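Lab meeting, item 3. Inverse folding demo.
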């Protein structure tokens, strides 16, 4: 990917890198360390093998993850975040903080509505 191909808006650039909920969940899992394909599939949840493969390839193309293939039978493949991928931790932390605050706000509103 070349800098000239990126949008002018930095928020749009970030959204482009995290263009699906699956990528965000994959990054969240890889923040804890290197994972094999099967581990990612189990951890991410209701993702199909095809969708996981497509997202991992796109993330590798964008420089967010590294893929290491071990010459074994059957082949073992591991995925690790790159430094660029790890730098998205602050974005995910902010999203988690906002999500928690939003949940708390909804609980307060629900309590107030029950009292009324």
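The presenter then showed the designed sequence:
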């Amino acid at each position: 990917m070349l800098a000239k191909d990126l949008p002018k808006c930095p928020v749009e650039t970030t959204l482009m890198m995290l263009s699906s909920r699956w990528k965000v969940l994959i990054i969240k899992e890889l923040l804890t360390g290197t994972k094999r394909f099967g581990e990612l599939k189990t951890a991410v949840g209701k993702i199909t093998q095809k969708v996981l493969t497509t997202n991992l390839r796109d993330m590798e193309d964008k420089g967010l993850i590294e893929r290491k293939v071990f010459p074994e039978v059957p082949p073992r493949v591991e995925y690790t975040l790159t430094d660029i991928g790890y730098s998205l931790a602050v974005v995910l932390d902010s999203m988690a903080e906002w999500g928690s605050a939003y949940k708390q706000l909804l609980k307060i509103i629900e309590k107030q509505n029950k009292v009324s």
